[in-house]
Amino acid sequence: MPAICNLYELYVESMNQIFGKSLAEVLAGENLPVAEVYPGTPGIVITSRSEARKMTWGFPLALKGKAGQPLRPRPINNARTDKLGGPFWSGSMRQGRCLIPVDRFVEAEGPKGQMTRTWYAMPDLAQFHCAGLWRESIEWGPVYAMVMTEACGTVARIHDRMPVIVEPDNFDNWLSGAPVEATDLCRPYTQDLLEVRSEELWVRR
Fold this sequence. Notes:
Number of strands: 16
Shape: globular
Largest sheet: 7 strands, mixed
Distance between the termini: 21 Å
Structural class: mainly beta
Helix content: 10-25%
Radius of gyration: 17 Å
Strand content: 35-45%
């Protein structure tokens, strides 16, 4: 099974109102990332009612070569719900939760070497928000990861996991509620998403 959610899209023009301000207003003066967001590249996250920040997608995982030499860190961009209590994620789960604005995310579909991109979005919204974790890193500065849970009907056709989608009524509980309240939100989305299958190759040649 291919890696889950290694690409999503975010467009500045679809940044909707959240907490009384648009993300474009909150991030005025920033060189905003737009369109495709990949692991290791900049994205936008909302860290509180009054703050949105540009961060790198993926917590850096330190790697070493065969001779023990340090290698370039690998971005760990997704956090499984059942792993949030582990040492890699638990600190951010307690004190570094965020919302990730997303227009749509993609999954790979098809046989190995011929996989194509299948996109998922909200049927009636230009943008929605996924659960995220963030922290400061030595390697890349502020970084974030997307929280994954069991897939809903449409996504489950090709993958068993998908991003945790946080509905507006639960924004505060995710951002600043007790960890147990936030953990309760890490559940499958109850409605089907809009699915758009394409002929675009997963790996562009």
